[in-house]
Automatic annotation (TrEMBL), chains A, B:
Organism: Mediterraneibacter gnavus (Ruminococcus gnavus)
Keyword S-adenosyl-L-methionine: yes
Protein name: Precorrin-3B C(17)-methyltransferase
Keyword field contains Acetylation: no
Record keywords, A-Z: Cobalamin biosynthesis, Methyltransferase, S-adenosyl-L-methionine, Transferase
Length: 243, 243
């Protein structure tokens, strides 16, 4: 069996990488990934072979990984954050059906929800829902249904891909839906460039969030009924104090 | 300012710990945590001072951390998995209000949803909801509302604390609610002792899950409409193949 690793390198490929991830990358011959992620790790692993494909060539990228492994190389496909949250682990299993002699191992990483929460304080202490606002691969009606359901049941909500050039008003639309169920002063937080140079964050209300422009490098958090701002941090209590 | 670290040590305190977490623990004088978690790291940091409190003494444990920091020690409060997902980061902010000279820094870790997903395959590739079935700190009605909302909107669902001695039928109850919206053959997965000795996992249908006994060391995953079993793994496609 040729083993192929799918590795989450954490939000910035820096110290938030797990020890297991670094160990696997150190042991590999070839590291494959989206151009931007490969650039993040290249300097840290100078002796490796690197292969990339641009965005929208994900299937090709996966095939490349299996084909290199079939040549006898030890291969790792890397993803920013975690490989299993909107990452390549799923597609690797799908494409892997054509390569029955290869076996996948998924190495988990810190996804933006977890890394961004740590920057803001402790927003995800209680039940939460993670939703991508990108309708590139999902019908908007489904996204809408999920945003409404999560807001209605008072989940803390973490939004991935809140914006892009073509979808500049999606976050505003999502906020308007959440405002049907959540109060205007619900505490929210945004984090940009998590774990990378230029990381920045801000706490604001849901009403303010609605009129805030964010870019595709931003992760957005919307609190539940209990979420508070504490000394500049976004904190969702779990209730230990009442026990 | 005395800085206090709240550190997620990952599922098993082994190689899934981030480099940042190990760096912080190495630099600390005192490591504080729930007895079971302290036992997980003790051997790896032989020269540290360790302080513990048992379960249900969370507030005391937090105060202890701040009090030790006020003595001038460099202190880390550790949590299994991530400190921000059902972890101590929130309570540390709450208790921290009484210690205005202390500043918190949260160091993220691999939570059971992320670590367990990597064991099963790729169940969380698309929008997902994380729900704890423990009604120790949350009214059961709220849990019920969230389970129904998440099932209704076809989220992949990850359940923490699916069972305990007093709550042996909670998973069955949750499955019955989900079966109102999700098909009986929905692909599910369970992982026990993630990242620890004796780790085990199983893929099964929602109908089978309903009649399965799990313990408190188990994390449960319920797929969405697209989730499939592929070669013994639980995989939720994201849709790249249709682009």
């Amino acid at each position: 069996m040729n083993r192929v690793y799918v590795v989450g390198i954490g939000p910035g490929a820096g110290k938030q990488m797990t020890e297991e991830a670094r160990e696997v990358l150190n042991a590999c011959d070839t590291i494959i990934g989206y151009t931007v992620y490969v650039d993040l790790v290249k300097e840290q692993f100078p002796e490796k072979e690197f292969l990339t494909t641009p965005m929208k060539q994900e299937v090709k990228r996966c095939k490349m990984a299996f084909e290199e492994a079939m040549k006898g190389k030890k291969v790792a496909m890397i993803c920013s954050g975690d490989a299993g949250v909107y990452g390549m682990a799923g597609l690797m299993y799908e494409v892997g059906v054509e390569f029955p002699k290869a076996e996948l191992e998924i190495v988990p990483g810190i996804t933006a929800a977890i890394g961004g929460a740590a920057v803001l304080g402790a927003p995800l202490i209680h039940d939460f829902a993670v939703i991508s606002l990108s309708d590139l691969l999902t019908p908007w009606e489904k996204i809408e249904k999920r945003v409404r359901a999560a807001a209605m049941a008072d989940f803390v909500i973490c939004l991935y891909n809140p914006s892009s050039r073509k979808r500049h008003d999606y976050l505003e639309k999502a906020c308007n839906m959440m405002l049907e169920y959540k109060a205007e002063d619900t505490i929210c937080g945004i984090v940009r460039q998590i774990g990378r140079d230029g990381q920045e964050s801000r706490i604001l209300t849901l009403k303010e969030l609605k009129d805030t422009e964010v870019d595709m490098f931003t992760t957005v958090f919307i609190g539940n009924e209990q979420t508070q701002e504490m000394d500049g941090h976004m904190v969702t209590p779990r209730g230990y104090r009442d026990v």
